[in-house]
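Re: the request from the purification team.
They wanted to know what the chain is likely to look like in 3D before they choose a buffer screen. I agreed to run a prediction and write the result into the notebook, where they can find it.
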Amino acid sequence: MKSKTSCFNKTIFLKNITHFWPIWLMITGWNIFIMPFMIYNTSLQYKVMKDVTEKELLQMKSNDLLSIVSVYMNPVVLFIFAIIAVMAVFSYLYNSRSANTIHALPVTRKELFLTNYISGLLFLIVPEAVGFLLGTLVGAMCGYTSINHLLTGFLLACGISFVLYSLTVFIAMFTGQLLAVPIFTVIINFLYVGMKGLVYLLMSTLSYGMTLEIPGSKADILSPLYYIIRHVQLIYDYSDEYSVCIGFAGKNIVAGYCLAAVVFVIGAYLIYRIRDMETVGSLISVSWISPVFRWGAAFCGGALFGILFCGIMDISGSGAVFALALIAGLIFGAVFFFGAEMFLEKGFRVFHKKRIIECGAFLLIFTCLYVVIEMDLFGLEKKIPDVSQVQSVVMDSYNESVITDPELIQEFLGIHQQIIDSKKEFENFSKTNQDTFYIYIQYNLKNGTLKRRYEIPIAKEMLQDPNTVIHRVVEFQTNPDVYRNSVFNVSDENIKLQEGSIDLYGEDGEYSNYEFSAEELEEVYQAFLADVEEGNFKDYIYSRYTYDENRYDQNYFNTVSIEYTSREKKEDTNPQVGVAYKYTVSRDVVRSVGIEFDVNCKNIIAALIKTGAIDSEKDLTTVEEKSKLDTKNMEYEE
């Protein structure tokens, strides 16, 4: 007779079920609490609701059901459950006696792996199925009609659990220590985005103009848990008077990860087949992973702590920053390299010839990376987009302006080029600790974004020189279109004025507030537009950069406050830990602005007189007058 090779061992399976019953109880309890209990508890509020239409009631129930489902399929919770299940069913691999005993039994490694893998997976799937079935029953009894949301949530929960569980099993095969399983799993799930963030931190420290903002990319999919949290989301639509939850985003992402999870399972089985039981207790159970661990620890530790050390020292100048960052990075890199080796060897005797040579090779490559960044061999510092690729430019030096006019964009690109060409001058200027300001630039391109941030020197004589960057930047902001946008951020036709007021100060400094009527507010707003168009804000804009005390008798302390609404339609995301909501926004957004002005803004002053807010220009208070009043009042109080 031909012998049969079993792929599943019933005895081991039943042992896992009975031995690890607390895990079953915990996960089942969570699912029962979230689904049937929360659905029933939420339904109680509808019994006391009045003056709600049937359409609104159905939508509210649908929203609540989707919110409950989003908690039920919370990726962070499923990730924790997956780790617990893996650590339970494969715990025998991390104890020498248990590992040798089980592998001495008349069962194949294939049989052991598949039995334990299926056991742990059922710890997750069966409780989710129980929660889904009970939730469906309770939902139907409580009058919920959108039961299809529960099925969608159940399938997504199963898919996410399968992905995270399979990846955790795969990672567990590489270590011989039980407590290393959750640590390595967390690291792997955030490794790519963490490394990307570290590289951006390094570039923002060494490269001229590079920002620390880390853009998302398709490659973030290499960090599964992070990517799932960010993209498997509830979709809300605000196009109506109330929010409408229309379902889940990211179904295709979960399906794609499920295909990848099959590869993880196959890889885990192949590693399990060749796994040496003598590696029990070792941090790394597969020898060729050890160099990766050493080099990864050395790079992360060296780069991160080197940059932190530079921040503590608070030095300026690209040459000094580069030298200190490199030296500190090399020192910390070597420390972390041999520190990682100590964990691998479980001892302190790690300074032998082979490892010293390997560490030297790492430090050489580490140095080359720093040199490449410092010399800008990839041209990132000099990169400026072509005007044909730019949809809009966001410039923020004092107030944020969004520029969409092609001619203005072309002019701004010229200013940006001069900033890049002035790199050495600006870095040397910053060493003298003279006045500087920061300008933030974001190009919204047809195929992404480009962000930069520069420290620009500022002095009164520079403002007067038309060839300097600061003069060109400030002059650019005096353009009517640019300044109007920096104040209101939207086009004129999208603005709906709601209410407004101006703060006033009496002869003794007492505060009062004049509120405009709708007609008066429109009068003041049109006066603001007229002053902008006539260039009457030019001196005021210049004075913001010089802090010139000679202008204190020209700039008014009074502020015109305007509240307005503007119609927006865009998509935005608001990720949180475990739950992330994706909003499709199409609604009136309420905003408020404060308009400061000076004696040159004749149209605003005339409008204030016409509306009756003031009797004459003498009723306005300059910065100098307000300072004297404050000083006088302080002396009186004393």
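For the purification team: The longest helix spans residues 109-141.
Please add any questions underneath this entry.
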